[in-house]
Amino acid sequence: MSTEDILELLVFSTTRFKFSSCIPPYCMEFEIG
Questions:
Q1: Which tens digit of pLDDT belongs to each residue from 1-33?
Q2: What are the residue boundaries of the structural domains of the chain, listed by start?
Q3: Contact of 11 with 26, CB cutoff 8 Å
Q4: Contact criterion met (CB below 8 Å) for 9 and 3
Q5: Which domain of life is it from (predicted)?
Q6: CA-based max dimension of the chain
Q7: What's the pLDDT score for residue 3?
């Protein structure tokens, strides 16, 4: 796995986590790391 692969995976996971924690009109943003 290259560094770019890992970064892509991190971004993807963070984005999915943010979406799954978003219940309109109340959105909670989580910072990971």
A1: 799 988 888 777 666 666 555 556 656 555 544
A2: 3-32
A3: no
A4: no
A5: Eukaryota
A6: 38
A7: 92
